[in-house]
Amino acid sequence: MQLTHYTTNFNKKTFPITLVCENVTNAPNIGSLFRIADAFGVEKIIFCSHDIPLGRKMTKTSRATEKVVNYEVIEDIAAVLSSLKASNNQCFALEITENSTPIHTFNFSADKPIALIIGDENFGVSEAVLKACDNVIHINMFGQNSSMNVVQATNIALYEITKQLY
After folding, report:
1. Which of 5, 96, 144, 149 is deepest in the core (most CB within 10 A)?
2. Cβ contacts of residue 132 below 8 Å, gap of 6+?
3. Model confidence pTM above 0.85
4. What is the pLDDT of residue 103?
5. Rounded to whole angstroms, how far apart are CA atoms 84 and 91?
6. Is 68 contained in some domain?
7. Torsion sign across C-alpha atoms 7, 8, 9, 15
């Protein structure tokens, strides 16, 4: 018999993970990010942009998880990163670069809280944010395409991080 979210016996757990979204502004993506943040026990989401659509298009995909996931909208990502680092967070950008590390080979530490920075749907994580992060991690891909949807990539990253921290 298939279980529903009312009948599963998963342990509820919140991980010390803050998801920082740099210019992620597509309403369905934002709704999906709320949903996976809830699924993976993310402590908080911070949206860094001037125009975050939190209306009906977003709630269609969030399935009410925006009501249970702690979040903030703060335009200035540099200030957010500075504050996170001052709070002893490890800052990881999820992006493919010349020097990024494959996520499956990276050992995440539970010693400090984690900030996972994801980027704009079209342009990824900005160069300034990449430089401000402690590490840049990527997901190995084996097809011809060099990128995937920001929500899909975040799903994979949160799975790997929480798998290691659990």
Report:
1. 96
2. 78, 81, 91
3. yes
4. 98
5. 8
6. yes
7. negative
In the predicted structure, residue 54 carries a pLDDT above the cut 90: yes
Number of domains in the chain: 1
Instruction: Let me know how long the chain is.
Output: 166
Q: How far is CA 98 from CA 16, 32, 49, 119, in A?
A: 28, 29, 26, 17
> Looking at the domain assignment, is residue 109 inside a domain?
yes
Asked whether the predicted pLDDT for residue 5 surpasses 80, the reply is: no
Residue linked to tokens 């799903």: 155
Domain span holding position 155: 15-165
Mean pLDDT of 153-158: 98
Residue 19 sits in a domain whose CATH number is 3.40.1280.10
Residue 27 forms part of a structural domain:
yes
Residue 10 domain flag: no
What whole-number distance in Å separates Cα of residue 149 and Cα of residue 127?
A: 19
Give CA–CA dist 124/138, Å, rounded.
Answer: 12
CB 45 within 8 A of CB 150: no
User: How confident is the model over 108-131, as pLDDT tens digits?
Assistant: 999 999 999 999 989 999 999 999
**Amino acid 3: pLDDT:** 86
